[in-house]
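We modelled the chain as a single entity of 216 amino acids. Its sequence is:
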Amino acid sequence: MLEELRAEVCRLNCELSRQGLVTWTSGNVSGRDPATGLVVIKPSGVTFDQLTPENMVVVDDAGKVVEGSLKPSVDTPSHLYIYRQRPEVGGIVHTHSPYATAYAACGLEIPVYLTAHADEFGGPIPCSGYAQIGEEQVGEEVVRTLRRGPAVLLRNHGVFTIGVTAEKALKAAVMCEDVARIGWLARALGKPIEIPPEEVERGFRRYREKYGQGGG
């Protein structure tokens, strides 16, 4: 079932480790099949080097396992809540990447210090309130906090990103950690200069209209 999506979600989960966004078994990627609404997600507590397309777990929108012999990620209820509330979302990534999570530990949003940040996120990356993990509360807080950009810092916890595909959600997670790291380094040097909102808007719009072979 969903052979291509399972392979893609497996590959992107492994990429979390390669990109330095997770440690041990923390973090996960999920992808939603637009035709069936079924979701493929990482199994709970399995190290990234043990992941295969075959041990990805397929669940329906209520969280029932449709295919797979392992338990799905404990974050599955939150992923599913986000999917139900945001029908345009095709992929979700959750990480505890260190620099972005440091901002989350302090309850701080990430200001727009860089043009690359403006391009990708269109404004500061917001930090949510605290939410208990394990059920839908995290998903509720992510949806409540999301602005037009694809990333949220979850206070005292980590990072959630969304995308029209799982790969775009992963790109947002990589970029979120990158701007958090550079922002932290800049703050160590002195007082970083925030980009004015009108210039953030111009960069965000231009990136979507002109970057790459078919938009950003």
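As a brief sanity check on the tokenised model: The domain at 3-210 is CATH 3.40.225.10 (L-fuculose-1-phosphate Aldolase). The chain has one domain: 3-210.
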